[in-house]
Design brief:
Phosphatidylinositol Transfer Protein Sec14p, Methane Monooxygenase Hydroxylase, Chain G, domain 1, 3 domains, mainly alpha, rod-shaped, 679 residues
Length: 679
């Protein structure tokens, strides 16, 4: 109960009851109770109170005798509390005081109210008339908690020590094997620690705060002993649990590291194995747009599979970075090595995928340009294969311009194809053996031969088209020249017709005198020279058309139309011109003779002795007048008059007037001849 006798020895109370008491259980209980106090307390001895008020004498005697075997050295006094009605006379047959030497302790029979003679009232419970506060069930519950805590903590300490000591073994394999066998304790350390803290708090609270009744309570020796035990166990538990947590952390870290290492190797093995094998089988670039697109689609499937592993790589890289930030030096080297290995493999594989994607994209662009160029060449060739039958020079010029534009477009397309092809060849040449883990010279040679073959084929097709364009250009230029010659020849005919028309309509005057007529005759000769040049120019153009037609192997329309027109107009012009010359020359002779006679002085009649001059002038004048009334007759039988009738009448009237003057002059000359005989 925590009570003490006057020698400071602990008081042990054995309450007996009416039921049969098991001595074995009592012996075990006494052994347990006597194991609780410290050795120092045991040295002060015990005072045992055997409460026999509710028991029989023989039971009390047996208990007292049993104390001899259980605690003979520690018991200094045994107080047997007798009932108010004394036992029968049997008690007299056994006197405890006479057996003191044999028992080893003093036994007294005492009534409950007289226990205070031997023990202070404050050290006795209320059952014996004392004032000591004691709750046996409370003590028992706390003792059970203490015992459970002690048992669990001791067992837990052994387990933790085994685990912790196992983690300190030398080799890695022994440490992992030890941790695997004893990794989980049988009880939860947190629960045991919480129980210990609650128990210690309860013990300390009862020690310093006193009982509920406010009366100062003297702590039991077992509680004084329990507190340091609990504290010691808690300290040991905390120490071992801290080490255990570190072991768990190390184990968790090691497990995490092993998982990371395992995942890293999975990523590395897949990328270097199936992933690289997928790329090894994909080396071609295709021979057309469709083939390149199919290869691109296949590559996208490969990229999709790689993306899943790259996602694992990102996650692993984040985990490794987190572990590196934790700063455990012993794992830094291994973690960095894993991170470097993973990064090297992933970046190398990503570079291979990117290289392959760029190569396929370049191949697709190359084949796209090649297809466009091939279509352009087909269109140009189709245009060249169609025979040219233009209507005029303008359509030929337009066709020639379209041809030049198509040829220029082909040149640009071929240049673009060469650029794309060279870029693709450069990429292929940079494809070293490390790219796919094997020698790719053979595969590259096939790709290079294909690219060069496409470019050479396009170059040959373009060269053939250029040759055909040169021939077609020459032919079309000759046709342009032919049309130009025909147009110019037709223009020459028009000019000559205009000259003829001008000759007939405007070249009418014959002059008022000889001088003016001579000027008109000179102008007419120049006019004829212009017409001759126009005719010669037309003839040359028509001769050129004949040559061009022979070169172009076509029938000249000029030979059947323009040339006859030119000759017909020229003949008409020639006839008209000759008529004009004849009239002008007659007019010159008429005016010259008439003016000579008219200008002769009348005082010299001897100059006119021959009258035949007058007759000649009159004959010339009449001939001229007759020609003015006669039309120009062309070789084809057609007729054409110079000017209008009024114009001809005006010219004839002027000649008649001059003829009258000549006639008058003649008469004047004749009058003197008539008057001479009369005189």
């Amino acid at each position: 109960t925590g009570g003490k006798d006057r020698r400071s020895g602990l008081i042990l109370t054995i309450p007996l009851c009416l039921e049969q008491t098991s001595m074995d259980e009592l012996s075990v209980t006494l052994d347990y109770l006597l194991s609780i106090p410290s050795e120092k307390c045991k040295a002060r001895g015990f005072t045992v109170i055997v409460d026999g008020r509710k028991s029989q004498w023989n039971v009390v005697k047996t208990v007292v005798l049993m104390l001899q075997n259980v605690v003979p050295a520690e018991v200094s006094l045994v107080c047997v509390v007798k009932p108010d009605e004394f036992w029968d006379k049997k008690v007299t047959h056994f006197c405890f005081w006479k057996e003191k030497d044999r028992l080893g302790f003093e036994v007294i029979l005492v009534s409950a109210n007289k226990l205070t003679r031997y023990i202070e009232p404050c050290q006795l419970t209320e059952d014996f008339g004392g004032t000591l506060t004691y709750d046996h069930m409370d003590w028992l519950n706390k003792r059970l908690v203490f015992e459970k805590f002690t048992k669990e903590s001791t067992s837990l300490l052994d387990e933790l020590a085994l685990i912790n000591n196992g983690s300190d073994k030398g080799t890695q394999q022994e440490r992992e094997r030890s941790i695997d066998l004893n990794f989980l304790p049988s009880v939860d350390p947190e629960t045991v620690l919480q129980t210990g803290h609650e128990l210690l708090s309860e013990l300390q609270q009862r020690r310093f705060n006193g009982s509920d009744g406010g009366v100062s309570w003297s702590p039991m020796d077992d509680e004084l002993l329990a507190q340091p035990q609990v504290m010691k166990l808690l300290d040991s538990l905390r120490e071992q649990y801290t080490r255990y947590q570190e072991v768990c952390r190390q184990r968790s870290k090691r497990t995490q590291l092993e998982e990371i290492q395992q995942k890293v190797m999975q990523v590395v093995n897949w990328l270097e194995g199936p992933g690289s094998e997928q790329l090894r089988t994909q080396w071609g670039i295709g021979d057309s747009i469709r083939a390149s697109q199919a290869l691109q689609q296949k590559h996208e499937e490969i990229e999709s599979q790689h993306s899943e592993w790259f996602a694992v790589y990102v996650e692993l890289n984040q985990q490794i970075a987190a572990l590196l930030n934790a700063g455990d030096e012993e794992d830094l080297v291994e973690l960095k090595a894993l991170q470097q290995q993973l990064s090297d493999v992933c970046y190398r594989q990503a570079s291979q995928l990117e290289f392959r994607q760029n190569l396929l994209q370049a191949a697709l662009e190359f084949h796209s340009v090649a297809q466009d160029l091939s279509q352009q060449l087909d269109g140009l060739l189709g245009m060249l294969c169609v025979d040219v039958a233009p209507a005029d020079g303008a359509s030929i010029q337009q066709t020639l311009k379209l041809l030049e534009e198509k040829l220029k477009s082909v040149d640009l397309g071929l240049q673009g194809l060469r650029e794309k092809g060279q870029s693709l060849l450069d990429q292929i040449s940079n494809q070293a053996s490390w790219a796919y883990g094997k020698d790719v010279t053979i595969e590259n040679k096939e790709n290079v031969d294909h690219i060069q073959g496409v470019m050479e084929d396009m170059q040959l097709r373009k060269q053939r088209c250029e040759d055909m364009v040169d021939v077609r250009r020459l032919k079309m230029l000759q046709m342009v020249q032919l049309f130009k010659c025909e147009e110019d020849a037709a223009q020459a005919v028009e000019w000559l017709s205009e000259l003829l028309d001008a000759l007939l309509k405007t070249h009418i005057r014959l002059g008022d005198d000889a001088q003016e007529t001579k000027v008109l005759l000179e102008k007419h000769r120049k006019f004829v020279d212009v017409a001759q040049s126009t005719y010669d120019y037309g003839r040359q153009l028509l001769q050129a058309t004949v040559v061009l037609c022979q070169s172009l192997r076509c029938t000249s329309r000029s030979s059947g139309d323009t040339l006859p027109r030119l000759n017909r107009v020229w003949k008409q012009f020639t006839v008209t011109s000759e008529e004009r010359v004849h009239r002008l020359e007659t007019a010159v002779a008429f005016h010259s003779n008439a003016e000579k006679i008219l200008q002769e002085c009348p005082d010299q009649p001897e100059a006119f002795n021959e009258m035949d001059q007058f007759d000649e002038i009159e004959a010339v004048g009449k001939s001229l007048l007759d020609r003015l009334t006669v039309p120009v007759v062309y070789p084809d039988g057609s007729e054409q008059y110079f000017g209008s009738p009024s114009d001809m009448a005006s010219a004839a009237e002027h000649i008649r007037e001059k003829m009258k003057l000549v006639s008058l002059k003649k008469q004047q000359l004749r009058q003197p001849e008539a008057t001479t005989p009369e005189s």
